Amino acid sequence: MRLPDLQSLKLFVAVCEQRNIARAAEQQAIVGSAVSKRLAQLEDTLGTRLLVRKRHGVTPTPAGETLLEHAREMLASVGRIERDMAAFGAGMRGHVRMLVTASVMAESLADDVAAFLQDPAHRAIQVSMEERVSPEVVRGVREGSASVGICWDAADLSGLQTRSYRHDHLAIVAHPSHPVASAGRLRFADVLEHEFVSMPALSAVQQLLVRAAAVEGRTLAYRVQVSNFDAALRVVRANLAISVIPQEVAQPFAASTGVVVIPLADAWARRRFAICHRDAAGLSPAARLLVQHLAACAQQPAPAQLVTF
Predict the structure, then answer these.
(1) 162 with 48, same domain?
(2) Other CB atoms within 10 Å distance of the CB of residue 51
(3) Across the chain, where does the E strand assignment appear?
């Protein structure tokens, strides 16, 4: 049996992810008929049916699901080879792509990565960071679209290797005139009668709050929906609602604006983050150095936060 070519595998993965040949063709900047021809050739090469054509798209057969898993691994490996070789050709030692959650990005990660890159031994390394919710971080690392991920350690990290990173403490953030602002100690149940700023539904913080409210037999009342901590803090400053935000993110903002930050007394409000990756032997030298550096950072105090809002 002849091995399939990489371009055909790339198109096959795109079709499986889009569940539609036309959309995959548009994504890959190629005409749909060419994609269909490639897929037919791929099925002929492998001697088995890979896709089931339906009225509104396609789905992979059991054989297609198996090929999809292998194809993603192969393409990820080729991508790493291309990046690493290009880095050497340009006089650089490597490139590390990371997927991280909003909390990690907003807290200390940028400073930790900056410290890594400022080391003269690491100046030839490039690091890119992309913000995702925890399930997408884990999926991206599993599928090989990123070498390293950092997310809440309560995520399903099965099948990945992990190391501890930093931690944070969720807090209620309120305008000084808000009724909860004078409380010296708060549990989440104490504030459920008030209106909240809602974060994205799939974010780790939002999912945690929804579950905690459900345990109390309540639902959260939302007055405003935003997409990031910056916007949530601005809503609080305008006294439109209260918010639950990591204390490490909110405290610098509070110092310059006067909003009140009250750490939650609930045990679940203390969160730990995990560095995750696939087999350590598969990490590039640059990624291995970065993981070691970040794990070491977890043993040190977090850097002081700057107010950037």
Answers:
(1) no
(2) 23
(3) 51-54, 57-60, 94-100, 125-131, 148-152, 161-174, 195-198, 221-225, 243-246, 260-263, 270-277
Kindly state whether residue 52 falls inside one of the protein's structural domains: yes
> 127 forms bridges with which residues in the sheet?
96
How many domains in the chain? 3
User: Which pLDDT belongs to residue 305?
Assistant: 52
Q: Do residues 65 and 71 lie in contact, with contact meaning Cβ atoms separated by under 8 Å?
A: no
**pTM, 2 dp:** 0.65
**pLDDT for res 19:** 92
Q: Quote the CA–CA distance of 113 and 126 in Å, as a whole number.
A: 10
Instruction: Give me 163's structure tokens.
Output: 């190391």
Q: pLDDT tens-digit profile of 53-86? A: 888 889 999 999 999 999 998 888 887 777 666 6
Claim to verify: residue 175 and residue 30 sit in the same structural domain: no
DSSP SS3 for 175: coil
| Same-domain pairing of 284 and 143 | yes
In a domain, 305, yes or no: no
**Residue 147 sits in the same domain as residue 293:** yes
Exposed, middle or buried, 251 (CB in 10 Å: 0-12/13-18/19+)?
A: middle
- Per-residue model confidence (pLDDT) at position 241: 96
Q: Are residues 278 and 145 in the same domain?
A: yes
In a domain, 308, yes or no: no
* 249's tokens: 């993110």
Residue 20 lies in domain: 6-75
Residue 237: other Cβ atoms inside 10 A = 17
**Cα angle for residues 216, 193, 219 (degrees, 5° grid):** 45
**Can you tell me the distance from the alpha carbon of 260 to that of 222, in angstroms, rounded to the nearest whole number?**
19
Q: Across residues 28-32, what is the average pLDDT?
A: 89
Matching residue, tokens 């907003």? 106
Where does a domain end: 33, 58, 75? 75
